Amino acid sequence: MAIEDTFASVTDMQERSQGMITAATHPFLEKELKAATRTIRNACGWHVAGKGEVTFKRVRPFHDDVWLPAMQIESITSATVDGAVRADGFAFDPDTGWTNIRGCAVDVTFVAGFETVPEDLMLLTLELAAGGLGTALNITREQAGAVSVTYARTSGGMVLADHDRLVPYKLGWLP
């Protein structure tokens, strides 16, 4: 499986909203799903799902352990460490990203990510995207009598207010 653009599809949104939100009624839907997915990935610090090959590059002035920015690591395919190519002998912790690779300049290719998008992240993606569609002009409050409109300082509905839901997927969290 390759790393997907979104954690949820237009069809998922149509089903979740019982037909209220469709691509026909919300032409920006696909962009909101991509933005919601990116928001979640940024908050977690890695791509999370699907399983795919990732390249990590790092340059530091000192030799140090390499911690890959991922969880659910399946394998390390190759590594170049301080100019020397390594093809095997890799040890790593699939949950934390620790490796036995040490060096100043490293270039590591590895396979990581959940095979399928966890259900809770798919639902969070749909919630964020729906919020973005519902507040496209950043209006958070509107009043008819004496006309009053309140705007948010965030872009659309892409605000991750419930960070606790992401804790199991954030880098640095140990089960």
Biggest sheet: strand arrangement: 1-4-2-3
Task: Please give the share of residues in helix.
Answer: 10-25%
Number of helices: 3
Low-confidence stretches: 153-157
Q: Radius of gyration from the CA trace?
A: 20 Å
Element-by-element helix/strand order: HHEEEEHEE
Tell me, what's the shape? elongated
Biggest sheet features: 4 strands, antiparallel
The secondary-structure class comes to alpha+beta
- The overall strand count is 6
Beta-strand residue percentage:
25-35%
Mean pLDDT: 85
Multimerization status: single chain
Termini gap: 25 Å
Give a topology summary.
Elements: H1 10-16, H2 29-44, E1 52-67, E2 73-81, E3 84-86, E4 98-112, H3 119-134, E5 139-143, E6 148-151
Describe this structure in words.
With 175 residues, this protein is α+β, with helices and mostly antiparallel strands. It contains three helices and six strands; from the N terminus they run H-H-E-E-E-E-H-E-E. It has helices at 10-16, 29-44, 119-134, and strands spanning 52-67, 73-81, 84-86, 98-112, 139-143, 148-151. Strands 1-4-2-3 form a four-stranded antiparallel beta sheet, with no helix packed on it. Helix 2 (29-44) crosses helix 3 (119-134). The radius of gyration is 20 Å and the shape is elongated.
